[in-house]
Structures are given as structure tokens and as C-alpha cells.
Amino acid sequence: MTETPIEEPKVENRKFAPTRPEKPNLTYVDYVEDFKVRMKINNYEVVEFIDDCKRGYQFIHPYIIKAGEFVGKTYNQISTQLQSDPVDVTSEKVESKTTESLTTEG
Fold first, then answer.
1. Cα–Cα distance for residue pair 106/103, rounded to 1 Å
2. Is the entire prediction scored with pTM above 0.85?
3. CA torsion, points 42, 45, 47, 48, in degrees to nearest 10?
4. Which has the minimum average pLDDT: 4-8, 35-39, 97-101?
5. Domain containing 57: what range?
6. Count: domains in the chain
7. DSSP characters over 31-60
8. In-domain check, residue 64
9. Which of 14, 21, 49, 106 has a Cα-to-Cα distance from 85 of 20 to 30 A?
10. How many CA atoms lie within 13 A of 41 on its CB side?
11. Is residue 19, in this structure, part of any structural domain at all?
12. Is residue 29 included in any domain, yes or no?
């Protein structure tokens, strides 16, 4: 496969001001007002972020509780089965018992 040469864009020489301007275009009051506005925006965004986190937690909390209960219930079922029938236990037998018990109860 042949590659076609790609021409790089030509960069014009940038010329900057050789000396610093005598005074800035913005006054100290302008900087202070700009800072105040930016802080208000930042505070608003932080409060919105915290609210989003709270809503996400409230949404997902019931699912986490259900998952924990399911894992505990399944663990107890498997533990009980293994304690009652410890001889000749194979992975196929455990998987089939677990699948049967979960499908009949759930």
C-alpha cells in the first residue's frame, strides 16, 4: 500500500508585541467582579453536582439492598446444601441444585 504524502499546514510566523502595554485594559474592580461571578457559577455547579449524587444514591440504593439480600440468601442456600450433603459433591451437582432451588423459589 502506498502512502500519499501529506502536506503539513504552513505556520505563519506569529509576531507578538515586543513590549508590555503600559496599563491593562481591565481594572482591579473588573477582576474582582469577574472573580465573584466565577465563584457564583462554581458554587451553583457544586450544589448541582451534590444534588445529582444524592439523586443517584437514592435511585441505586434499593437495587444494592436487593442484590445484597440475594447474595446472602444464595450463599445460605448453598452453604446449607453443602453441609447436609458433603459426600460426593461435584460442581455439576451443586450447580444443578442451585439452579433448581433458585428457579423454584424465584
1. 5
2. no
3. 180
4. 97-101
5. 40-77
6. 1
7. HHHHHHHHHHHHHHHHHHHHHHHHHHHHHH
8. yes
9. 106
10. 6
11. no
12. no
